[in-house]
Structures are given as C-alpha cells and as structure tokens.
Amino acid sequence: MLACLFLSALPLWAQHEQIAVQGGVAAGHIHSGSAAHEGWEGSVAGTAYSEFNHHLTGMLVLIIGLSELRQALAIPFWAWTRFLLPGALLTAGMFLLVWSDHDAWPIGSLSFAQTFFGSDSEIFQHKSYALLSLTVGAIELLRRVRQLGHAAWAAPLPLFAIIGGLMLFGHSHGLHPSAHKIAMGHALMGTMAVTAGSSKLLSDWLRAPAQARYSKRELFWAGLILLIGLQLLVYAE
Q1: Does the pTM exceed 0.85?
Q2: What is the DSSP string of 23-46?
C-alpha cells in the first residue's frame, strides 16, 4: 500500500519539483544562508514545496489513523496490516529527514551542522519530527514482531503525539505572508495531537492486561489522528 501511495504521488512530486526550480531561478533564491530561506517562504515555489510535503504527510497520517481505528474496533483483518502504522511512521520519518526543507541538508546548501545546530528553528523542528518518527516507527515495528513485549514500549507512540503536538505551538514559518493562518492551523493540529496522545496514554495505562475489547479513549485517539491527517491533506498556505 505504501508503495502504491508513492507511485501515485510521483506525478505530483515531479510537478512540484519543476515549480520549485522555476520559482527559485525566477526569484534568484538559489543561494545559501538564512536570507535564502526567508525569501523562499511564501514564494510560489516555496508554497508548492511546503503544501506537497504537508499533503503527503497527511496521507501517511491517515494510514496511521485507519490502522489505529481498526485496532480500536478490534476488527479482524489481514495480518500484514499491523505493519501499516510502523511503515507509515518510518516512511514519514525518512521523507522529512531528506526533503522537509529545500535549503537544508542533505538536499540543500546548508551543512549537517547548520541544519541541526543552526539558528533556524523551523528546520530544526522538521528534522526533529523526522528523527522522532523514525525512532517510534522502529519501536512499533519491533513491538509487532514481538521483540519488545513489555507494556512500557506502548508509551512512545502517544508520547510522540504529545511532544509533536506541543512543538507545533511554537512552530513558525518565518516571514511568510500567511504566517497567522499557518500558526492557527498548527495550533489546531497541536491541540488535537496532545489530546489524542493523552487519551491513548491514559487508555493504555488503565487497560487490564487481558482486556481485548476497545475503549472509548482508543476510539477517540484514532478519530483525532484521522482528523489531523485530513487537516494535513487539505493544508494550504
């Protein structure tokens, strides 16, 4: 399913790359440094790049939400579908690590040190999301192949939602003409993520070891994840 998702996104990716190159050349933004990043924000190329990244991430979050909804409702399904959640997290993490920012390492002019230890908080947060997603995706994969059996290993997933949600409240797109609109959207997603993660964490903590049925809190968690995915899917700057 994830392979089909990327195959379907390839035409959009090619179109977005063409817009990015044309827009960058037209605006004279093909150079390094924070000034280039500020000029990129809000440009035709920068907007196309950002919206594509949000939309693709939205599709992956929807896969996570649907996987958790199946789990919450205890719906019997093909055994391989239990790998959809870790697969989506790992895919999102790899995508963000490489392509989250046009100017950042490894595809942009900024070095590894400038990307992770520089002064641009937006880039740093994007890369932090990538590393968190890869870490939690790996943990969830190991849980599903029964290499991590202790109940405590269920905590990183909802904690990731809580931490990521809190980070969204301080996430800024710099000198973007739609900065207020973007901040409001991020605040809404952050609120839903923190609420969803808290609900999931509480549900896991209160669940009896032998309990097999879903709880309303798990259903609430899955529903909010789906809403976040939908919001990312219709994201516009």
Answers
A1: no
A2: HHHHHT--S-SHHHHHHHTTSHHH
- What is the total count of domains within the chain? 1
Q: DSSP assignment of 95-148, as one string?
A: HHHHHS-TTSTTTSSS-HHHHHHSS-HHHHHHHHHHHHHHHHHHHHHHHHTTS-
Q: Which domain holds residue 38?
A: 2-233
Neighbours of 26 (CB within 10 A): 11
Residue-wise burial string across 218-232, b where 16 or more C-beta atoms lie within 10 A, e elsewhere: bbbbbbbbbbbbebb
Q: Which two tokens stand for residue 87?
A: 């697969």
pLDDT digits (tens, 9 = 90+) for 49-78: 989 999 999 999 999 999 999 888 888 888
CA atoms within 13 A on the CB side of 34: 10
**Per-residue pLDDT tens over the stretch 8-25:** 444 444 444 444 444 443
